[in-house]
Amino acid sequence: MFAGGKKVVGLDVGSFQVKAVELRKAGNKLELTNFGIADVYPNRDRSAAQHADVFQLKTNAIQKALQVGKITAKHTVSAVSGESIIVRYIQLPEMPEAELKNALRWEAEEYIPFSIDEVNIDSVILGPSSVPGKVDVLLVSARKDLVNDHVQLVRQAGLTPVVVDVEGFAFLNCFEVNYAPRREECVCLVHIGADVTNINIYVANSSRFSRDINAAGNSITQSISQKCGVPFAKAEELKYAVGTMAPEGGGDEPESELISTIRGTVERLTGSDLGDDTPESTAAKAIQGALSQLVSEVRRSIQFFEGQGGGTTVQRVIIGGGSSRLRNLAGYLQGELDIPVELFDPLRNISVGKDVDQNLLQQHREQLGAVIGLALRKVID
After folding, report:
1. Residues 6 or more apart from 141 whose CB is under 8 A from it?
2. Edge-to-edge, what's the strand order for the sheet holding 186-192?
């Protein structure tokens, strides 16, 4: 694997769950050999543990995930995410790579809204730019305090951090291995985490657009909790039981335009919703309201990319992460975006070892894109 064959664990420390996996490579084949998962908060309810030591809760969850997965590896590849991560795609004059790395520190000040001394910077040369004499460069920065806190957390759990990646790029790494996209394909990857959704547009074998937004799984659950007046854990159950509206063409015959107009008028005058007032109906409306922001941000991101991309058009959207499991979500997004949408399979091209708990794996399969992408960093290097 690395450093004399030491095993490496891919470690995804989320705001609500910790996931840990081990992979191995045999010839040209990849195999998931171990998988563990643990909740950070009891009943996944952060409000119930608001006075607890979050650092310690996450440390405990890391250790529990390793225990559940029977993982003994001590070296980790993990990731950070959120607003402290800045990703920019810039153009620089062609120059030797060593000179370019030196120049980036000065160029970065123009693109990063933090003091240059407060961030860690990395970059990747993407290739020749459409502008003669220039190259396209992917510039990534992360606040040092974010990275330092993360590293301290991993070490507190008794592990040794080897690589700290960016979560959105870990998901992209898993996509590349499992889908082997053609160079001419342009795909929008949407990884819906608990607190953060990453939108990453992939074309010509590299990332060409990336941003994190706050419309994510927990914002949907919190909306259900508030509107239905139920605890967070119950709202999570409702979220997955209800899902999104079925794609157009299914369901009951729509009501007439006259009845619809009368209904709307009465509701405006009385301030009351004359529809179904069951928890499921209320949850469905909460889900649609929360998803509207997600749809808007994905659409906006695609339009921005296509406006800057020299005529390149996004051909399909692939969704992953915990809330991608919402019933009918792919069909709903496809109807809203008018682009083919499919659910991501992080094990499409990776076999599963006999020691992995199959029931646990199937319960959380859609959530494994980022953590498998992290483990791949050292397995395929």
Report:
1. 85, 86, 108, 112, 114, 119, 120, 121, 122
2. 206-213, 197-203, 186-192, 316-320, 341-343
- The letter for the amino acid at 169 is F
Q: List the domain range (segments joined by +) for residue 190.
A: 181-344
Nearest to 60 by CA among 34, 75, 38: 38
> Is there a single domain that holds both residue 96 and residue 244?
no
- Please name which of 273, 264, 274, 364 lies closest in space to residue 321, comparing C-alpha atoms: 364
Structure tokens at 270: 């009385």
Average pLDDT, stretch 348-372? 95
The predicted structure's pLDDT at residue 265: 47
DSSP state of 251: S
- What's the one-letter identity of residue 219? S
Same domain, 128 and 247: no
| pLDDT at residue 22 is higher than 60 | yes
pLDDT tens-digit series, residues 261-279: 544 544 454 454 545 678 8
**Which pTM value belongs to this model?**
0.86
Q: Are strands 29-39 and 119-128 parallel, antiparallel or unpaired?
A: unpaired
Chain mean pLDDT for the chain: 86
